[in-house]
Amino acid sequence: MTVRLYAMTLGRLDVDMTAMIEGGSGTARVPVPGFLVEHPKGSLLYDTGMHPSIQRDPAEWLGEARAGRFGFDYPPGEEVSGRLQAIDRDPARIDLVVVSHLHFDHSGGNGLVPNAGLVIQRREYDGAMDADTAARVGLDRRDVELGHPLIKVDGEHDVFGDGSVVCLPTHGHTPGHQSLKVRLDGGDVVLTGDACYFCRTLEERRLPARVFDRDAMRASLDRLAALEGGGAKLIFGHDAEFWRSVPQAPAEIRF
Ligand SMILES: [Zn+2]
């Protein structure tokens, strides 16, 4: 059972580092990652990046306030459908999207993979449907209201039923954030998503300024650390330095 894993950079964001990590300062340009997983039973994406309209006018989709907190480096062709086409994959034939969480830089490209089912933690979905929670945490319900079949899951979820691709609940950043564990020939890779922005987040347990639940996020970091201790390779959410070491599609991530 061979599973293939590919990384794609879906644009970059300039972010305020004081918000990204305790003790951070200044601004930094960070990647917006997306991943393609190919399994004999189907293909999936882990996250779809930003909404394509952000390439023209970030405020149109995000509103002035939210758009004003970031710088955007997102030229045409870097949206997930463009990245897939560049490696001869048809966006219309992607079977599933595992939604890490409903922040704009993770689920904004869902509309570009129109025939995929969305695998989302029920807690995340419910959070987005609750107006107060959605506003406080910045969850965008529009990304799950495009007509995709929704596959709401509770906790760990074995996507293809053979243990090779497993959603891991890593709540805390948002109510129902999930990471993704992918078993490659050489071992497990864990795509942390925003459960862990940077390598340093884990090493030094320095959290972002605003998270939904700090205790839950710390517990999720403990879980990721345990996986790493057990031999898994972690791929972090927004770590520019680390990202340079990750081969980009069409090269495969191997482990
Ligand atoms: Zn993010």
Explain briefly what this protein structure is.
The chain is of the alpha/beta class and 255 residues long. It has helices spanning 17-20, 58-62, 64-67, 80-86, 104-107, 122-129, 131-137, 199-204, 214-229, 240-243, and strands at 4-16, 27-39, 42-46, 71-73, 96-98, 117-121, 150-153, 157-158, 165-169, 178-184, 187-193, 233-236.
How would you describe this structure to a colleague?
The chain is of the alpha/beta class and 255 residues long. The chain has a single domain (4-243), classed as Metallo-beta-lactamase, Chain A (4-Layer Sandwich). Helix content is 25%, strand content 28%. It is built from 10 helices and 12 strands. The chain has a 7-stranded mixed sheet. A hairpin with a 6-residue loop joins strand 8 (157-158) and strand 9. The two termini are 15 Å apart. The model has no long low-confidence stretch (mean pLDDT 97). The site of zinc ion (ZN) has 6 residues, from helix 5.
